[in-house]
Amino acid sequence: MLSAEKEPIYASDPVLKFTWVVKVRGASPQSDQVRQARQEIPTSPRVQAMLAGRDEQGRLPFHPYQKWLGAHWVLALLAEWGYPAGDDTLFPLREQELAWLLSPTHQKNIRHIAGLTRRCASQEGNALYALLTLGLADERCDELAHRLVAWQWPDGGWNCDKHPRASHSSFHESLIPLRALALHARLTGNADSQNSAERAAEIFLSRRLFRRLKDGSVIDPHFLELHYPFYWHYDVLFGLLVMAECGWIHDPRCKEALDWLESRRLPDGNFPADARWYTVTQREVSGRSATDWGVTSAKVHNPFVSVLAHFVLKASGRG
What we know:
Elements: H1 14-24, H2 32-39, H3 45-51, H4 71-80, H5 91-101, H6 104-107, E1 111-113, E2 116-118, H7 122-133, H8 139-151, H9 171-188, H10 191-205, H11 236-246, H12 255-263, E3 272-273, E4 297-301, H13 303-315
Antiparallel strand pairs: 1-2, 3-4
Helix pairs in contact: 1-2, 1-13, 4-7, 5-7, 7-8, 7-9, 8-9, 9-10, 9-11, 11-13
């Protein structure tokens, strides 16, 4: 087992420290140590880099969904790492996000084909999760939850595939709504959100988080890679993280995925990032990040992947 005193993997960033202290070490959220750790998050160079482009109205000069610089992605990442809740300087980013998702133009992108709603539900899911976590939610977030429930496919998930013959949900489009609806249910007691989250969880659990139902083969080799940030992409670590947050990590169908995660442990006790979904560059290219998120190497640990992996293993009783 890794010792935080021997190998302080959170030392490079306040967001890592908060997650390590709360989720891995299990410190009380009311403790002075946790309060101090949380207060330091806005000073993180990564957080400051993500928020640096705001204008005088506090908005980011991008479409909310512009990868990976728009308000949608910034709010999701702030929520991931415990940014202090209720910060009213984030209200303009919330308004950018919701003005986009609730706009008539956005609604026109929703298709109903062969009796199924074709929707990139990770968008509403990320928004709902972020705004609830950051203490920025209002009645419009209940509307996002209502829409996700209404768009759910018979097998329990969501998909934006417009091919009429598409009949199975997408792992990429289903995990984030599951995460968001489970949180919405916990915070509001909404039974529809809870039932929807439970149905969605079965998509992943029935497939052991990465295997096909029909023959047990691996659904996608990228699922068996470690990444951070996840953005909208599914991998086994992201799946296990959501199972841990939502209370399904002790389901025996998580065992094989947990075994695989443990097999990726490096000699120092931490975990690598195999690949990344972003580019750090000054050029105006799609997928540009305002900051990097640690080394990508099979032999050197990535602190962001490591902290989340340790949390998952602790939550499962293996930490």
